[in-house]
Amino acid sequence: MLKTTRRRGLRRALTLIELLIVITILLALGALIAVNFIGVGDQASEDLQQADIDRIVGAMKIYKANIGDYPSEDEGLAALWDKSVIEDESKGARWAGPYLEGPLRDKWGNDIVYQRPSQLLDTEDEGSYDLISFGPDGEQDTDDDITNHDRKKNADGEIETDSEFSVPGDIGGR
Q1: Which of 49, 132, 158, 167 is positioned for an S-S bond with 113, CB 3.0–4.6 A?
Q2: In which element (H, E) is residue 31 found?
Q3: Residue 131: which H helix or E strand, with range?
């Protein structure tokens, strides 16, 4: 009878150790999974913001096709949804919008910045422009800024403007 009691006690102890090992393994796996997926939500927001900027670029192309030029910096992006901001009456007569609903804000609640001519491209082309979201931190000129030129960046993060297929203000010739 004494041997049976010792075996039961030993078996209970092994079961507890096995349980602790399983819990430790599950916690380690959970930590690995969590570490790999922590930044996924942030990256998804940035990808969605890039898609929104691409959508604005598309509306700008249609606006230019109708009007003959991109909005001036004074008219701003509001020209895409509000005909009354167009300064030139002949351009206003060709306006066939609204091209987008506005005002335009990024995923973090900040205004999309429009600059014309482009200050990000190393060019004097008056037909170039910048669309900028200051990204999650909301601060200008930081690494998380998202622009209409991001798709034209090379591996070093420099914007390539020599593409024979690109059009000023365009997103990589699309």
Answers
A1: 132
A2: helix 2-37
A3: strand 130-133
Q: Is the dihedral of CA 131, 135, 139, 144 positive or negative?
A: negative
User: For the whole model, what pTM was predicted?
Assistant: 0.64
From CA 167, how far away is CA 153, in angstroms rounded? 15
Residue 45 sits at φ, ψ, to 5 deg, of -65, -40
Q: Does domain 42-152 fall into CATH 3.30.700.10? A: yes
Ramachandran region, residue 140 (left: φ > 0; alpha: ψ -120 to 50; beta: rest):
beta
Give the phi and the psi of residue 69 in degrees, each rounded to 5: -160, 160
Query: Which H or E run includes 37?
Result: helix 2-37
Structure confidence by residue, pLDDT tens digits, 71-116: 988 898 899 999 888 888 888 888 987 998 878 888 888 888 898 8
Domain ranges for the chain, please list them: 42-152
Looking at residue 24, the DSSP 8-state letter turns out to be H
* Model confidence pLDDT, tens digit, residues 49-80: 888 889 998 998 999 999 888 998 889 889 99
Biggest CA–CA distance in the chain, Å, is 106
The pair of three-digit structure tokens given for residue 139, joined into one six-digit string: 């601060």
Q: Please say whether the beta carbons of 153 and 160 come within 8 A.
A: yes
The two beta strands, 113-115 and 146-147, are unpaired
